[in-house]
Specification:
By secondary structure, this protein is of the alpha/beta class. It has eleven helices and eight strands. Strands 4-3-2-1-8-7-6-5 form an eight-stranded parallel sheet. Helix 3 packs parallel to helix 5 (about 125-135), helix 6 (about 160-165) packs across helix 7 (about 180-195) and helix 8 packs antiparallel against helix 9. The chain starts with 11 loop residues before the first strand and ends in a 34-residue tail after the last helix.
Length: about 350
Amino acid sequence: MNAIVPRRKIEGNSAVLLPLRADGSVDWDAFCAQVVRTADAGLAPAVNMDTGYGDLIDEGTRVEVLRRTRETLAGQTFTAGAFVHDRPGAPFDPLPYAHRIEQIQGFGGIPVIVQSFGLTGLPPAGIVAAYADFGRVAPRFIAFELGTMFAPFGTIYDLATYEGLLGIPQCIGAKHSSLRRGAEWERLALRDKVRPEFKVYTGNDLAIDMVMYGSDYLLGLSTFAPDYFALRDRYWFEGDPRFYELNDVLQYLGQFAFRAPTAAYKHSAAQFLKLRGWIGCDATHPQSPTTTAIGHSHPAEHPRTARRLRFPVRSNVRVSPYRSTANARSTGRAYPLARHPA
């Protein structure tokens, strides 16, 4: 286990949900509003990730996400998933990855290299060589290893392979989504020894306190509440003990939202954001798993979590996707958890 690193400035990246309407079309205004909300909170939006159905949307939607993100942020930093669709047993093809990387960079984003069957099917040395080749196209990119509970093509690399990634200068960090603390602690220890400036981005939505040990984050859970994640991060930097209380409640939300089937968390996110008044429909992608209707047949309801977080269960907040959300104020009922500074 790594030592706790107190009063550290945490780098937060939040995978943005792609909100859908009942007819399956994208609610672009709601999407852009969530991008602004995330950036205004101080987190970097991450688009076309798993939370944004990056492996399920078509090419036109993927490009439109990038275009609208660039337009909405007007030069602010964002990351985007570089996803290549293939099938089990498919050989690795670097050309589609190069296209995705150049596409993301063309819109001003930093590519997050999403695994594929072809990439993870390579031998360890071939995997490291493939990432090194990505560095010929991308001056900065983020690697991403994920468990099969998120996607069937996912693989958690062995430590020798991970150390190979640390040796690629253009690879500025790697998201780790095994949902296992031990594996992430091993990566932190290796990072500290080999390349301290390398970012280990936790993707462990069941252990968001990994930031205490030196991880930064790229999480799907933070799309539920980018404002409260940013506040939690600030508490840690300031040495404010309210960090622990707020982190506990956010983790309560994560334990519920990421229950089996894990990939259904996107449906939970849509339900939760609808409860917050931030989106108008809680539909999920038709190829993405669904979860129990909130407030009906599951004993651990999102409204209960909302109350513990002082979230308004209903809110009339409506935010223009093309202006700052800084002056938006909720008029919904608030429920005390802790007194948060203005």
